[in-house]
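Pilot study result, target chain (117 residues):
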Amino acid sequence: MIKFISGLIGFAVPSWGLAAAALVFGISVLGGAYFKGRTDANANCNAASLQLKIDILERDAEIIKRAAKFEEEAAAEIAGETERLEKERADYAATLQQRPACALDAGDIDADARRLR
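Predicted structure:
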């Protein structure tokens, strides 16, 4: 075999030279496999990291949607309560003005309402 290879390349190859070439080839194959494995592992890690970021952003978006819905409901409830209280105050002011002994006018009632706030 060594004579055949020597004849192909045109000079004599020592017996240890073929073994050394096979060893270098084997080490380079193992090194390539190692670095390919590391590259694949890094790619998998990066993909998992990106997926985690996507999941966190989707969860945050859902929380923001729920908070906005809650804010709308709370604003509507506060507006309804404000409207009810304003009507109640107006009704009370009208009642006070209908009493003959009470000399309060709407300005006095509004001033008291501002003072109590």
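One observation from the pilot: The CA atoms of residues 78 and 91 lie 20 Å apart. A full batch analysis is planned for the follow-on phase.
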